[in-house]
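Suppose a colleague, Dr. K., hands you the sequence of a protein chain of 273 amino acids and asks what its three-dimensional shape might be. Before reaching for any lab equipment, you can write down a predicted structure in token form. Begin with the sequence itself:
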Amino acid sequence: MAKKKGISTKAITAEDILSLYETVLPLLNNNPENIDVAYTLSKKLTGFIPYDSFHYVLNHDEDAAKPEHFRMQLERWTDPKSKKGTVSNLEFVPLHYDDPDAIFDASVEHHYQMTLERKRKDQPGKLQYHYHRLTSHEEPKVAVGFFRLKNTKADNAFSAKDLHVFEKLSPHILLLFRTILNPAYRTKPFQYFEAYSQICATIANQCRLSDSEAKLLPEILFGYSNEEIAEKNFISVPTVKKHIQHIFKKTGVKNRLDFISRFFTSPGRVELT
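The predicted structure, expressed as tokens, is then:
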């Protein structure tokens, strides 16, 4: 059998793997300039596998999965060649799965689609990308996806050699992203978002909101205008207004101020189950 060209079992050495850790670990111990560690790791990875941008999602299953539960996920996409266009989000995603792995996979796919939408909006035109994703369902669950802009004149898909390198580096990439991102789940801002995600989920269940309506609860809470909500969710302003009217009717409030004061300035009124 002919040997496949471009694949070498010696492509990745122990020194190569060590260099990844040496790029990240010192910054976790001492980072006075607040350097973006995930960005730094990604920039290092492009030396092994050329790509144009990446995204990641990290999730914990400390709360039991249940229908219509709002999942908090730490996510981001960026271009390792330039910090322009970087997006970081803590996003609420209402999902209907009993299987925690299915919830996570759906969250990752959701973020992948949203990332494509944002990228195409920031760079007008029908941009197409090659894509490869690394995923682990061990706790905390993590997924990292890599984008390569398609070349219209030549095939530049991730090659067999690229995939071989991904395979060799995968356990180290996933471990390093877990190490980098895990502390974010212990910060006060994240705990704040998590507490209010539970309130949003409870309101959605008790008031029988549709998925489209439930998704807008955090948007209303954090003061987004109708125009901002429309842009963020890729829907029209009239559609936003219609959803909000339905939310107010189902929850028995008159307006945004009444909604926020009733549920969020006095969260004790909402029984978390």
